[in-house]
Design a protein that fits this description.
By secondary structure, this protein is of the alpha+beta class. Helices cover 33% and strands 13% of the residues. The chain has two helices and two strands; from the N terminus they run αββα. The longest helix is centred in the last third of the chain and has 15 residues.
Length: 76
């Protein structure tokens, strides 16, 4: 696995050029100062979505930054 750091718009453009537009998973990384949202993109090759979602889920479990929504459309 390799890492690439770029501005948010560059990631989408580069992913599209590389044919990865259907394999981008964005999630909160929990490191936002002053409450400013920040995210992390994971990219994978076409048809590697199960791997991508597994990595995103593992990160989310380890980082513990996910919060349940305050409101839902259907009551329990």
């Amino acid at each position: 696995m390799s890492a690439h750091v770029s501005t948010p718009n560059d990631v989408v453009e580069e992913a599209t050029i590389a044919g990865l537009q259907n394999a981008i998973q964005t999630m909160r990384d929990g490191g936002a100062p002053l409450g400013v949202p920040r995210g992390m993109d994971l990219l994978a090759r076409p048809f590697d979505e199960p791997l991508l979602l597994g990595l995103a889920y593992a990160f989310e479990q380890r980082a513990r930054v996910r919060r349940s929504p305050l409101h839902t459309l259907w009551p329990d």
